[in-house]
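Hey forum,

I'm writing up a methods section and want to include a predicted complex as supplementary material. The small molecule is pyridoxal-5'-phosphate. I've pasted the protein sequence and the SMILES. Can someone with a working setup run it? I'll credit the forum in the acknowledgements.
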Amino acid sequence: MLLFTPGPTPVPESIRKAMSEPTLHHRTPEFESIFAKARAGLLELLKMPEVLMLASSGSGAMEACVCTFTQKKMLSINSGKFGERFGKIAASAHIPYREIINDWDTPVSVESVLKVLNEESEIDCFCIQMCESAGGLRHPVEEIAKAIKAYNPHIVVVVDAITAMGVEEIDTTHIDALIGGSQKAFMLPPGLSIIGLSQYGIELANKRNVGFYFNLKTELKNQSQNTTAWTAPTTIITGLTRYFELINGNIQQVYAQTKARSLATHKALESLGLRIYPKNPALAMNTIYDEVNAAPLRKILKNEFSLNVAGGQDKLKTSIMRINQMGLIPLNESVWVINAIELALERLNLRKFDGTGNKVFLTAYYDILDK
Ligand SMILES: *Cc1c(COP(=O)(O)O)cnc(C)c1O
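Reply by user p_vandermeer:
Happy to help. C-alpha cells for the complex are below, copy them as they are.
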C-alpha cells in the first residue's frame, strides 16, 4: 500500500535502518552527540536562535506554547480542526481566548486580525496554523506576523508549522514560536515535536516558567547542554539525524522539488476536471472537493490501486480528498498517484482515460523545477 496521507508520511528505509540500532541510554555522551547533531540540523533549518525537541505529538508543543505564552488572552484562527485545537487547549487550561472563525477553504486576512487586536487590548498571544491541514489551506502568516509586531511587539506570535516545516522556506523574522512535528515532512514516526524560538520567546519562556512536563524553561536549560529534562525519544531523534544526512545540507532542493511536485499535481488534478478546495492552497498537500465522488474515489484508489490518500474530518469527512506532498517523494510515485486517479475517474464513469493527468503533471513539474 502506497501511503499518501498528509501525516503520517512513509518512513524511508535508511531512516528505518538508522532507528533499528540498539537503544542508547539518554544520559550518555553517545546520545548527547546524536542530540547535538539533530539540534544543529534544526537550528540551521529554522534559522531561529533556539530550538526545543519534546517527546509528544504536535499537539503537546501547541499546548506548551499556548500555556507558556498567554498570560491574559489568546487570539487564534479557526479555519479547521487544527486551528480549533488552539482554542480547545486554551479552554482546557482556563485561559481566556477569542477565535476568528473562517470557512475551512478561506485564509484569514491581516485586517481581520488587526481589527480584533484593536477591540481587545488584553490579547497577548496570537496562534495560527501556517498550513491548516483540515483543508490544505495556507494562511498569509508572514504578513500577519509582521503586522502584529508592528502593532505591538509584545504580542507573542505562535505558528503551528507542522505541515510547513521542511516543506517550504519559512520567514521566521516576526515569529516567536514555530511548531513542528516528526510525522510530516521529516518522514519520521509520530512522537517528537519541535519548537523553534525567537529571542523574545526564549526570554518569556524563562521568565514565565510554566508547567511541569512541558516546561520550556526546564527544557531550554537542558537542551542547550544537549540533553533533555525527561527521557528523550532517542530512537526518533536518531532518525532525525539520518534525515539531515539524507538531505545532505540541500534543503533548498527539497523545497524546490516539493513546490514543483505540489503545483504540478494541482494542475494535473484540475486538468482531470477536479476542483481544488482551498482558495489559497498550501504546498504540503493537494485537497480536492467533490461532495459526491470524493469518498468513492478514495475507495477505488485503495482497493484497486493500493493507494492510501486521506479523506476529510468532521463536516468535510466524505467531501474532500487530501494527497500528501511532504517529505522526499520519488517522482515515479507521484506519477502513479496521478495515473491511478485518472483511472479511478474512468471507473466512476466521470471521464475517459487518455493520459492527460500525467502529461500535464510531468510538463508542469519540469517547467516549474527549471525556473
Ligand atoms: C498533524 C498536525 C498537527 C499535529 O497533530 P498531532 O496529532 O498532535 O500530531 C498539528 N497541526 C497541524 C496543522 C497538523 O497537520
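Some notes you might quote in the supplement: The mean pLDDT is 97. The chain has 13 helices and 14 strands.
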